[in-house]
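yo

u said u wanted the structure for the complex thing, so here. seqs first:
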Amino acid sequence: MATFQCEIVSAEESLFSGAITSLSVRGTIGELGITPGHAPLLTGINPGAVTLQMEDGNEQVYFASGGYLEVQPGFVTLLADTALRAEDLDEAQAEEARILAEKAMEDRNSETEFSSAAAMMAEALAKQRTLEELRRRRR
Amino acid sequence: MAVGKEIKNKIGSVQNTQKITSAMQMVAASKMRRTQDRMQQGKPYSDRIRGVISHLANSNPEYKHTFMEARPVKRVGFIVVSSDRGLCGGLNVNLFRTVVKQMAELDAKGVEVDMGLIGNKAAPFFRSVGANVVAVMPDVGETPLIADLIGGIRVMLDAYSEGKIDQLFLASNDFENTMTQTPTVRQLLPLNPADDESYKHRWDYIYEPDARQLIEGLLLRYLESQVYQAVVENGACEQAAKMIAMKNATENAEKLIDELQLIYNNARQAAITQEIAEIVSGAAAV
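structre next:
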């Protein structure tokens, strides 16, 4: 099966580097699936799960909180703001973050606070979605 | 015995200095490990984003940002990364010398220079050589924050966007290993296309959502990450240079103590010999 090189780096570390057969990610204007030979593409990404399909059929799930994705014919680079292996996501923490974000949205008193609270909310929800997806896959 | 009192005092003071320098060496060694870790962590991101940007510079984008267009050079900007503290050997001086050399070359061509300075050591130096300093970011500390640097970076980028400067360089030390740090000057703006034949044909990315918004965001991220990485790397260089400088100082103190000890022993021996000679000649006279 055709493969391409993929690298996931965040500002803190390099998370993944290797050959994969496909990658799916949440772009700013919708879900994206990248397979070998994709046209050059540059896009922003939204908080959400990044799923890699390995050559041996296994899947790896990561969580990215936003950033940029570059696609070149032979390789893909994902520049995440912060990224985690989905296994490292903490369910309780994600829930706590969501509640905190909800509270912040309720007692906001300015436009900027609202947008930052909304961003917090989006990230917390994306984390929970990623966890759900991970659970679904395990079954 | 009153012999060599001054020498004894001198030895004592050198020993005290040696204690300080060896303590500073150990502090620098432990800090170096931490700063080096930080440097390694940021490296993949800044390397990758540099790759993406050099591809972008090679493409034929539908939207050309001002950062991507080369203009005739009348005035250039330098961002110089220095350390906050001294006692780190020739680290800062070597870098400054490299920059001053480039400034002299530019000056000969009639090109003026604006400076944005990071760290405490750069500002006094470049003010004293009469450079035109437009931004200073002092006290970056041991854990530099992007937030502390953004203001100064903005000043330089705005100057570029407004056409006040036509090129922007970043001068900092590269960490080769503990013993070697190389002063380097990199061109930040306009963007340098990668020298890769496979990207020379006409092509462009598909942009989502919108080329302009995307490229602007990515470029800003790129420049911030390059400057931040340079500051972190310079921090690792500082600690390494400090460790080596303090190691040398400790060794020099050791040598000095040995020499002084020898002089002291000579003087003491001479005094004893003289005393014996006096006693013997006194006894002979009786």
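Residues 93 and 124 of chain A are 9 Å apart (CA to CA). The radius of gyration of chain A is 16 Å.
cya
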